[in-house]
Design goal:
There is one protein chain. By secondary structure, the protein is α+β, with helices and mostly antiparallel strands. Helix 1 packs across helix 2. It starts with 6 loop residues before the first strand and ends with a helix.
């Protein structure tokens, strides 16, 4: 849906612009937009060339190319409180523990300036959120991917923020996830230790570095345990499961870590649209050809979180059950 407040611009490229880079050409046409801003608009799908979305700033201009550009309306400098319901497990004057549903972005960013967990916390906690995280991330000490569900903690005071951030940095926070995977890991229990960096082929993705001796990227460790296996994977040796329920415990917290690591060892998370499409990905199906219910997001749930209270120093532990969409997928796997 087009925002009626968008600044819509269009141009038919002239002959004099032939061979020029697209971002440089557009910046020369509209001095109020820098090349960096134009490149950001491209990455966000806001520029089309001959009615097709164009994401390459290096594209060469040809005469009579029809270029459309949409500049979204400016967003507020700071996120606004929004009355978004929260499932709260624990709350006191220093912190709040809650269950983040799948589909909820943690903090404002490009493409999600409103409707985030931060907006909900600002409404619920009024003026009692820690400001250490900055104007866009007040109270946020860790995060879950938008389409990962599960338990999270946020800081309401600066002393809580400092303590929780240190616990996460020291890897003393206990975090456990449940993942439904295509296939099952071998061995059934183990540790994945592989450095992760931004993919050279897609800047929105992370990837395991091929050279284990490389010092690029970030060190990442995922401990896993296969809790159950289901069915027989078609076209594979007897005893190769079609799916598995895997528990993952993190020693580090890198972007997309579990999703990247499990895909790396050949058992990507079911319905993961980013890391589950490779290696001949097939939908989970039973012997009659019935396809598993699509849940529209990676089947990953942060079900346990444990840490020391920043003020009372009491050890706290929280656990939340698998949400209904993942449970439906698990129920289907149980029929294989």
């Amino acid at each position: 849906m087009t925002d009626e407040n968008q600044d819509l611009r269009q141009v038919s490229a002239c002959a004099d612009a032939a061979g020029e880079r697209l971002d440089r050409y557009l910046a020369s046409l509209w001095p109020d937009l820098s090349r960096a801003r134009i490149q950001a608009l491209m990455a966000d799908g806001q520029i089309t060339v001959d009615a097709k979305v164009e994401t390459s700033a290096k594209r060469k201009v040809r005469p009579k190319l029809c270029i459309h550009l949409a500049v979204p309306p400016p967003v507020a400098a700071e996120p606004e409180p929004e009355n978004i319901p929260l499932e709260i497990l624990f709350e006191d004057e220093d912190l709040i523990v809650l269950v983040k549903p799948a589909g909820l972005t943690v903090h404002p960013a490009a493409g999600n300036w409103t409707g985030t967990l931060v907006n909900a916390l600002l409404f619920h906690c009024a003026n009692s959120l820690s400001g250490i995280g900055g104007t866009l991330r007040p109270g946020i000490v860790h995060r879950l991917d938008k389409d990962t569900s599960g338990v999270m903690v946020a800081a309401k005071s600066d002393r809580a923020h400092q303590s929780l951030s240190k616990q996460f940095a020291d890897h003393t926070v206990k975090r456990a996830y449940l993942a439904l995977t295509r296939g099952a890991p071998l061995p059934r229990e183990g540790c994945i230790e592989a450095r992760i960096a931004r993919s050279p082929h897609d800047r929105k993705k992370q990837a395991v570095l091929r050279n284990p001796q490389s010092m690029l990227g970030r060190h990442a460790i995922t401990n896993y345990k296969c809790l159950n296996v289901f069915g027989q994977q078609k076209g594979q040796p007897i005893g190769t499961p079609a799916a598995a329920l895997v528990e993952c415990r993190l020693e580090t917290g890198r972007t997309h870590q579990i999703r990247v690591h499990l895909a790396h060892i050949g058992c990507p998370i079911l319905d993961d649209q980013v890391y589950g499409k490779h290696r001949g990905y097939r939908k989970l199906s039973d012997k009659d050809g019935t396809i598993a219910p699509a849940i529209g997001r990676q089947a990953l749930h942060a079900y346990q979180l444990g840490f020391r209270h920043p003020v009372t120093h009491k050890q706290l532990h929280f656990e939340t059950p698998m949400p209904a969409d993942m449970q439906s997928l698990l129920d289907f796997a149980g029929t294989l």
